[in-house]
């Protein structure tokens, strides 16, 4: 058995401890005589799994009692539609979108199908390497919500403060920074994300939504499965939820609690990212295109400035046991995704490799 340093943007590295525990429980989950994959989602055993997962997530994030937690199928893309369908008024609905990368751009475009989705700020002119000047953004006071993508996974751009939207609910896609740092849930109307970046296997989105935003007065074409009111009423069990994914997420929540919760993991994430950014700042051989104040702790893109050399880097890295370091197809170069479960040793190994590659190719 050998494991690589896996810098994949998602699905991505999971804590080894969690994988081992899941392996041990694979054939006989705690005396049930079956795998979690094989059991009814209505069984006592699974009910305990999902309830504990929710309780641990609430505990980790400090989710107030007036928020619902939903575990839903369909990943983040399904929420790109579910959010406007559920939150825009059925007649004359409108929402303001801040576009800071490909994911918020896609979400904004999807939302135009359901109402007046307006891009109120975009950093596309800097090739998504900066943050919008929030003081200059003209929000519409009668919008149904304001939408951001907290951490743009492809470009490696993360908000360092959130827009003040007054009474207009703020909606955030946190797919790639979920549980990477403490967050004040009460500032948001909806926080959601696909779990496959920083929490578990693919197949589930977690939606944390303030109860007063859950209504049956929604776009009449909303599929029943995408209605927050239906899913909240049925505690995410309207139909079969992504059971095995929820089970692994639950284990990751418990693992995070052992790491000192979100404050503990945040401090580790800062220290980890610092190793990589400090090196990038100390050399001219590699460039990190993102403005310093917008840098993500989770996704770190960098380039050599030469496409052939980038390709050589990716191939040589693979030889050295460093996998999935190639940048997204839309930006090229390299990207190191250093999520919660990436050990500091992995980042150190990457920087060692980068130094060696630099020395050999300068
Ligand atoms: C990966 C990603 C998505 C898309 O997730 P899917 O689950 O594949 O639909 C959306 N937003 C962000 C920020 C992402 O990183």
List the helices and strands and how they pair.
Blueprint: E1 5-6, H1 16-24, H2 44-61, E2 67-72, H3 75-87, E3 94-99, H4 102-111, E4 116-122, E5 145-149, E6 151-152, E7 157-158, E8 170-173, E9 190-194, E10 205-210, H5 228-233, H6 243-258, H7 261-282, E11 299-302, H8 307-319, E12 322-323, E13 334-337, H9 344-361
Parallel strand pairs: 1-12, 3-4, 3-5, 5-8, 8-9
Antiparallel strand pairs: 2-10, 6-7, 9-10, 11-13
The chain binds pyridoxal-5'-phosphate.
Pyridoxal-5'-phosphate binds next to helix 3.
Mean pLDDT: 97
Helical fraction equals 25-40%
Helix and strand string, N-terminal first?
Answer: EHHEHEHEEEEEEEHHHEHEEH
- Could you tell me the strand content as a percent range? 15-25%
Major sheet attributes: 7 strands, mixed
Low-confidence stretches: none
Shape, per Cα inertia axes: globular
Number of helices: 9
Radius of gyration: 21 Å
Strand order of the largest sheet: 2-10-9-8-5-3-4
Number of strands: 13
How many angstroms separate the termini? 35 Å
Based on secondary structure, the structural category is alpha/beta
What compounds sit in this structure? pyridoxal-5'-phosphate
């Amino acid at each position: 058995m050998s494991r690589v340093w896996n810098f994949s943007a998602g699905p991505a590295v999971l804590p080894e401890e969690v994988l081992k525990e899941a392996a041990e429980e694979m054939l006989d989950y705690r005396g049930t005589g079956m795998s979690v994959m094989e059991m009814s989602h209505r069984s006592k055993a699974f009910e305990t799994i999902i309830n504990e997962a929710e309780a641990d997530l609430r505990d980790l994030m400090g989710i107030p009692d007036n928020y619902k937690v939903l575990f839903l199928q369909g990943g983040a893309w399904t929420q790109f539609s579910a959010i406007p369908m559920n939150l825009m008024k059925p007649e004359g609905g409108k929402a303001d979108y801040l576009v800071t990368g490909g994911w918020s751009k896609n979400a904004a475009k999807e939302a135009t199908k359901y109402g007046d989705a307006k891009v109120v700020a975009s950093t596309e002119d800097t090739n998504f390497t900066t943050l919008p000047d929030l003081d200059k953004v003209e929000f519409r006071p009668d919008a149904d919500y304001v939408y951001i993508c907290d951490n743009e996974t492809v470009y490696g751009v993360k908000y360092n403060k959130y827009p003040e939207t007054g009474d207009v609910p703020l909606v955030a896609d946190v797919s790639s920074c979920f549980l990477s740092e403490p967050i004040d849930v009460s500032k948001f109307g909806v926080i959601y994300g696909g779990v496959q970046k920083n929490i578990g296997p693919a197949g589930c989105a977690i939606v944390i939504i303030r109860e007063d935003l859950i209504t049956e007065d929604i776009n009449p074409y909303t599929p029943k499965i995408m209605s927050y009111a239906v899913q909240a009423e049925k505690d995410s069990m309207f139909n079969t939820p992504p059971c095995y994914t929820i089970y692994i997420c639950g284990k990751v929540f418990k693992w995070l609690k052992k790491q000192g919760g979100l404050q503990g993991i945040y401090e580790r994430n800062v220290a980890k990212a610092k190793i990589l950014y400090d090196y990038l700042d100390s050399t001219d051989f590699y460039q990190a295109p993102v403005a310093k104040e917008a840098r993500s702790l989770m996704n770190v893109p960098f380039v050599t400035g030469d496409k052939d050399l980038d390709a050589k880097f990716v191939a040589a890295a693979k030889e050295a046991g460093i996998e999935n370091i190639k940048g997204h197809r839309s930006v090229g170069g390299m990207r190191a995704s250093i999520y919660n479960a990436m050990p500091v040793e992995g980042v150190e190994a990457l920087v060692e490799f980068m130094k060696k590659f630099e020395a050999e190719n300068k």
